[in-house]
Specification:
The protein has about 250 residues and is mainly α. It has two domains: about 90 residues, no CATH class; about 150 residues, no CATH class. It has ten helices and no strands. The longest helix is centred in the last third of the chain and has 28 residues. The model has no long low-confidence stretch (mean pLDDT about 90).
Length: about 250
């Protein structure tokens, strides 16, 4: 079984590595079919990466986070994202998660890449997420409570945006709409509040380290949605019931 777990972990890590490289090439204007066949290389000195440098996570560790030739720094985002998707795949496998959870997680992973590195996301990807959420809701998660809760949360966020003049963007709200249709209502409530809490914690920590006001800290929300989605898809209902039981007691 351990071999299977290791293989699933590295499958997720390898998919993350491939997605990262492909999106990077798209943003650099690399055309098809080169975008799929081009060898990975250092973008500064153009040195082609060796086979061991291409191993997800471990390749980064082996080269010390820098190009082995020109010593240009490699973004820490890459090994962290590879580890995250590897762990995510393993957890989804261990808890026998529904097939569409895997698909949505990968799409959120792609959206997170854009949100972290470019601070914006392609509208087409958000539209794809919404289109995928509709049949999932109809065939797997149809219930009135989810509609009411999702609508209420989005209305609250919209009003806060109008009042504070700076809050969630339209893309963030559309993603929350899609996730509200995909997740059962208990898991969705857990996902929403967990993402808000962790994002605020991130803002506080960054503000302290950089000695700046929380209001000036830019928060890429989609990575927090992604992590919270993973946790809530597996344990969301249990977390919700536990918190409610503590409140009622």
């Amino acid at each position: 079984m351990i071999i299977i777990y290791i293989c699933i972990f590295f499958l997720g890590s390898a998919i993350a590595s491939y997605i990262n490289a492909t999106i990077y090439r798209i943003e650099k204007g690399v055309k098809y079919p080169e975008i799929l066949t081009r060898s990975s290389q250092c973008e500064k000195c153009k040195k082609k990466l060796t086979w061991y440098e291409l191993i997800p996570i471990f390749g980064y560790i082996l080269i010390g986070g820098r190009c082995s030739k020109c010593k240009d720094r490699v973004s820490i985002y890459y090994p962290i994202s590879e580890a995250f998707l590897g762990i995510s795949f393993l957890l989804l496998y261990l808890f026998s998660s529904t097939f569409y959870i895997w698909i949505i997680l990968i799409l959120l992973f792609i959206l997170s890449y854009y949100d972290v590195l470019y601070r914006e996301v392609p509208k087409s990807l958000v539209h794809i997420l919404i289109l995928l959420s509709l049949p999932i809701f109809i065939f797997f998660n149809f219930n009135v409570i989810s509609l009411v809760l999702t609508g209420s949360i989005l209305l609250l966020l919209f009003l806060l945006t109008l009042i504070l003049k700076k809050s969630f963007g339209l893309g963030d709200m559309l993603i929350l709409l899609a996730l509200g249709l995909i997740l059962p209502y208990k898991a969705y409530v857990t996902m929403f509040w967990f993402s808000i809490f962790t994002a605020l914690l991130y803002a506080v920590l960054v503000g302290i380290m950089k000695r700046k006001s929380m209001k000036k800290v830019k928060i890429p929300m989609i990575p927090f949605f992604m992590v919270s989605f993973l946790i809530s898809a597996i344990w969301g209902a249990e977390i919700f019931d536990y918190i409610i039981s503590k409140i009622l007691l």
